[in-house]
């Protein structure tokens, strides 16, 4: 088991690099306890959704895993371990990107800080936007993952019938949307527990508010690079065009919001999260 765990990391360094980036962003944001609880809960939700789909066709539609690597890396009841783990960091970076879009923005020196509040973190807007942001990540990921035999992922899965979107069925994206709702809702629920004092692991980190959105963009860029590398230029171009306008809109609207918050918004932020960098001289 130990050797398989090590081999899993060696075989999938990009996955565990993204997971390490998730820990680097999430722990200073939510603390160790909530980070670990969500990691476990998110993995179980993701694994259950994948196991259900390969046995019942719900929620992603019928697909199958190709067991060529279970002697080299961790598999859990017919599902590659790394695959379900990926949902954890994809959910967090999608959720925090939603928070970046929804929250007022403030600066302290060169740092950019989202004025998150409990109301914003636990809002239906963060839930819906986070779920759609995660689903749109999969619109970029799945077509290139389906070509895994042409790059270092390997051909680990397939669909019984070719779908409309570069071989991916629309049912897959509907399943991702449903699962993403559950994952973001679970993260929101875990975060609802009030902290009487600064949670263990939270500390002031420059540009901490940007780490989630940067992780989101990193996943996009990684998949675009792989897609171009294997010569699937139409898939890459389609994915880039899907995200160009949203990225420009987020950047422009963020620039317009910097330091244009109301006094009540700042007060609510500081009351909800007294460990905010804005509360320190």
Give a written overview of the molecule.
Keywords: Membrane, Transmembrane, Transmembrane helix. The chain has 281 residues and is mainly α. The protein is 64% helix and 6% strand. The chain is built from 10 helices and 6 strands, in the order αααβββαββααβαααα. The chain has helices at residues 2-11, 13-30, 32-56, 81-102, 118-121, 124-145, 170-191, 208-229, 233-257, 263-272, and strands at 63-65, 75-76, 79-80, 105-108, 111-114, 157-159. The strands form 3 sheets. A two-stranded antiparallel ribbon has the order 1-6. β2 and β3 (79-80) form a beta hairpin.
Point out poorly predicted stretches: none
* Cα Rg: 19 Å
Number of helices: 10
Percent helix, as a range, is 55-70%
* Estimated share of beta-strand residues: 5-15%
Query: So what's the overall shape?
Result: globular
Main sheet summary? 2 strands, antiparallel
Which strands sit side by side, in order, in the main sheet? Answer: 1-6
N-to-C SSE string, H for helix and E for strand: HHHEEEHEEHHEHHHH
In total, how many domains does the architecture comprise? 1
Structural class: mainly alpha
Q: Name the average pLDDT.
A: 95
Span from first to last CA? 49 Å
Number of strands: 6
Give the arrangement of secondary structure elements:
Elements: H1 2-11, H2 13-30, H3 32-56, E1 63-65, E2 75-76, E3 79-80, H4 81-102, E4 105-108, E5 111-114, H5 118-121, H6 124-145, E6 157-159, H7 170-191, H8 208-229, H9 233-257, H10 263-272
Antiparallel strand pairs: 1-6, 2-3, 4-5
InterPro entries: CruF-like (IPR007354)
Protein name: Putative membrane protein
Transmembrane segments: 14-32, 44-65, 85-103, 124-146, 166-187, 207-227, 233-256
């Amino acid at each position: 088991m130990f050797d398989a765990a090590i081999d899993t990391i060696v075989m999938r360094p990009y996955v565990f690099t993204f997971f390490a980036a998730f820990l680097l962003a999430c722990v200073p944001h939510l603390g160790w306890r909530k980070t670990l609880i969500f990691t476990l809960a998110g993995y179980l939700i993701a694994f259950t959704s994948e196991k259900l789909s390969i046995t019942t066709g719900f929620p992603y539609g019928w697909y199958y895993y190709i067991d060529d690597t279970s002697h080299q890396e961790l598999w859990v009841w017919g599902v590659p371990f790394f695959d379900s783990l990926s949902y954890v960091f994809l959910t967090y970076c999608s959720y925090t990107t939603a928070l970046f879009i929804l929250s007022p923005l403030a600066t302290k020196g060169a740092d950019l800080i989202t004025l998150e509040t409990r109301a914003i973190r636990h809002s239906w807007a963060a839930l819906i936007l986070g779920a759609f942001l995660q689903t749109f990540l999969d619109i970029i990921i799945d077509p290139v993952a389906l070509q895994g035999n042409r790059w270092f992922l390997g051909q680990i899965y397939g669909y019984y019938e070719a779908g409309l979107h570069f071989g991916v069925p629309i049912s897959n994206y509907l399943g991702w949307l449903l699962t993403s709702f559950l994952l973001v809702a679970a993260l929101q629920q875990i975060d609802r527990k009030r902290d009487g004092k600064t949670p263990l692991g939270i500390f002031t980190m420059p540009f901490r508010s940007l780490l989630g959105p940067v992780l989101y963009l990193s996943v996009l860029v990684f998949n675009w690079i792989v897609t171009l590398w294997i010569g699937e230029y139409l898939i890459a171009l389609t994915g880039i065009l899907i995200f160009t306008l949203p990225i420009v809109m987020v950047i422009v609207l963020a620039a317009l919001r910097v330091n244009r918050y109301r006094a009540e918004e700042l007060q609510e932020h500081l009351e909800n999260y007294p460990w905010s960098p804005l509360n320190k001289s």
